[in-house]
Amino acid sequence: MPITELPNSRTEPDGSAVVRVLSYNVRSMRDDEDALARVIRACAPDLVFVQEAPRFFRWRKHAARLAAKSELVTLSGGATAAGPLLMCSLRVTVERTEDVLLPLTPGLHRRGFATAVVRIGGARLGLLGCHLSLQARERYDQAGMLLDRLAALDTPHAIAAGDINEQPGGRAFQRLADGLQDCWAVRPWGGEHTWNPADPHKRIDAVFATKGIEVLGCGVPHPRDVPGLDGADLRAATDHLPVLAALRVPAN
Question: 26, 93, 156, 248: which one has the fewest Cβ atoms less than 10 Å from its Cβ?
Fold first, then answer.
């Protein structure tokens, strides 16, 4: 049955948590920062996986400003993870964080992972934000490193999200989908394509979850489905569209 409304955040009587997760490439906040924050607020996420967060002069100040405008707090990442940044709501209790730099290929941009272990309600889960390489071989290798790092978080459940720089038919994307649930493919909601806002025709951004997590819906939010979301803001905020998912994470 098609999903018309994405569930709101809540904690179930058994301690399981319904969590809203947003993945968003913000292009170093070079576009309309206020529109970007309005999009994030309208999506009402518990967890935000940001790609291309500011990495240079006063980057922590810029990240904190985006979090404050979005009614969130910074969790981990940023320049210390070569771009991926995690933000969260005050619903989230943080257990630990770690920023990971990946091996540098000469001539290519340095990549990294922003990771954390958190608790929401009675659920404990690992988080990993990524922005994979533009080069196909390196991207495939990084997909393997992502799976290894996610397993190393040693949590009952985990979520990985980010800009894969590849469509679902690609080798790196498929490597991730073989090991994890591709949330849009499991239970699509909203739109599919994330690039670019003016002419969406590629799905290169995704939310993945480990097998025990129930996917309640995932896709590109549309103004008709999300109260307070404005189409002009989606076009002005950055050069990607966001991916929004609702996931039910079992209690430990």
Answer: 93
